[in-house]
Amino acid sequence: MQFKVPQFIDIEDKVVGPLTFKQFAYLAGGAALAYISFKFLPAFIGFVIAIAFAVLALALAFYKYNEKPFIHVLESFIKYYINSRLYIWHKQEPMATPTKKISAVEARATLTESKLKTLSWSLDVIDTKK
Q1: Does some domain include residue 71?
Q2: How far apart, in Å, do the first and last CA atoms of the chain sit?
Q3: pLDDT digits (tens, 9 = 90+) for 41-95
């Protein structure tokens, strides 16, 4: 039995013409805020604020920064300015490791032939260019 595997699952569905639901909501909200600001504020101030709302709505709907939607950039911007940015570095002293002293008899007992060969080889290979 064969099954069809869905493809393009990371692409949103186009709901309103060529726009996704999120894009349509951003544009409709931006247009509503622009209309309200233009209608209830004095002409010049309302026009400037309406332009700002329209640009924000267009950026939210269509602009991508580093392949991410603009809403992620805006969210990171707001979190950065709301949260505190005080970083204090405290130097920590390294913890002393207890060293166990072993006697010569114990050292001879733990020294194997392979360790002895490695030690003698490392002593033979001394830089003689000095």
Answers
A1: yes
A2: 77
A3: 998 999 999 999 999 999 999 999 998 999 999 999 999 889 887 777 878 887 7
